[in-house]
Design a protein that fits this description.
By secondary structure, the chain is mainly α. It has a single domain, classed as Four Helix Bundle (Hemerythrin (Met), subunit A), CATH 1.20.120.80. The chain is 75% helix and 6% strand. The chain contains six helices and two strands. A two-stranded antiparallel ribbon has the order 1-2. Strand 1 and strand 2 form a beta hairpin. Helix 1 runs antiparallel to helix 5, helix 3 runs antiparallel to helix 6 and helix 5 packs antiparallel against helix 6. The longest helix is centred in the C-terminal third of the chain and has 34 residues. The radius of gyration is 22 Å and the shape is elongated. The termini are far apart. Belongs to the cytochrome c oxidase subunit 3 family.
Length: 207
């Protein structure tokens, strides 16, 4: 912690710090607040799907469109990415940069596999005429699942950025803090996807 210094002034003494003061765990607290706001966004999207998810407008329903084995494979990819990120955090705690980066690469590959399968699913649905404009069900479906997919995309970009920073500067305090923030973000996306898989795909396939 920086030592306070004094500067004389006409109206007394002014105390200040020689270097910038960063409150301990301030970044993590701020990131928790961000995740809470993201929870509100997804809560609104889930609520919209709950209201509109049965309005098919004489078009296809989830039972007609969803390929559960493919979605189960996609879910497995994302859950595995969460496990590998957890192993990366364990290696970070031991300051093993090489092993940590290896686990992060696996995390990135699982995340990209998840996005690839999701894009394939979207392409297949649109090719069959199940576009977002077809019905309220499809509009709410693409909005909810697509928003989650965008979050995973940003997470992959963030992950690549952090791997480059760690490779250049090592496990300095700033990089550890950023990796912890990304860890919370990544696991948050897993929790949201479990909700999507259960509420959208499983229930939708039974409609």
């Amino acid at each position: 912690m920086s030592t306070p210094s004094t500067v004389p002034a006409d109206n007394g003494t002014i105390f200040y710090l020689r270097s910038e003061h960063h409150p301990e765990n301030g970044t993590l607290l701020g990131f928790w607040l961000y995740l809470m706001s993201d929870c509100l966004i997804f809560a609104c999207l889930f609520a919209s799907y709950g209201v509109l998810g049965r309005n098919y407008a004489a078009g296809p329903s989830g039972a007609d469109l969803f390929d559960l084995p493919l979605v189960a494979l996609n879910t497995t990819m994302l859950l595995l990415s969460s496990i590998t990120y957890g192993f990366a955090m364990l290696e970070m705690a031991k300051n093993r940069v090489g092993l940590m980066l290896s686990w992060l690469v696996l995390t990135l590959l699982f995340g990209l596999a998840f996005l690839s399968i999701e894009l394939y699913e979207f392409h297949h649905m649109i090719a069959e005429g199940a576009t977002p404009q077809r019905s309220a069900f499809l509009s709410s479906f693409f909005t909810l699942v697509g928003t989650h997919g965008l979050h995973v995309t940003f997470g992959c970009i963030w992950l690549v950025t952090l791997m480059v920073q760690v490779a250049k500067r090592g496990l300095i305090a700033e990089n550890k803090r950023r990796l912890m923030c990304l860890s919370m973000f990544w696991h948050f996306l897993d929790v949201v996807w479990i909700g999507v898989f259960s509420f959208v795909y499983l229930i939708g396939s039974m409609s």
